[in-house]
Amino acid sequence: MNAAPRIAERALLCAGLLTGAAALLHVAIIVGGPAWYRFFGAGERMARLAARGSAYPTLVTADHPETPTHLVLYRAFSALGGVVHTHSHYATVWAQAGREIPCMGTTHADYFHGPVPITASMADDEIASKYEENTGHAIVRRFSELDPTTMPAVLVAGHASFCWGPTVTGAVQTASILETVARMAYDTAALNPGATPIATALLDKHFLRKHGKNAYYGQPTAV
Fold this sequence. Notes:
With 223 residues, the chain is mainly alpha-helical.
């Protein structure tokens, strides 16, 4: 058996977990205030500035590239406990193609209640200024009529995927599952270009039997 897919999946899980943990820690330090700055070794000067209400510690701590995006998502989606951003191959292929990931089968439906959405392309001014923050706003706009608890992933047009969950570990698991269903959809389209998404009744059945108050199939799963 070829071990390459398993190795790649482990690498994705590790990278996603570290990315999500780093971004979440930066946010936690900002919220935690002076004591957190001291505990994580930022130094007494940073702790005192934070205690005085100076913006400098926040600006420095938020300098992690993904933090502004994550902050927008945490503020908009109250159920989120972790967010990860990866450039896994197949999910990124769909993002670069400007296409949502269609629900071609029940494996997808077990985890995502519908096609995985893609954002609109960002405007030039959104890219030129506050790019990372505006990436978060593009995601939030795309979810104006979607529930982030039943659709825990999104593709950013021309970029890659963001996934989330009730914890960082849950968000990493979502990223791994997303890559799997992205590859399945890609391979399905290659094998049968005329294939169409599964019926809504079948999609609803598979998702709702595993998620929500009336779930009855398998171990309880949070999205």
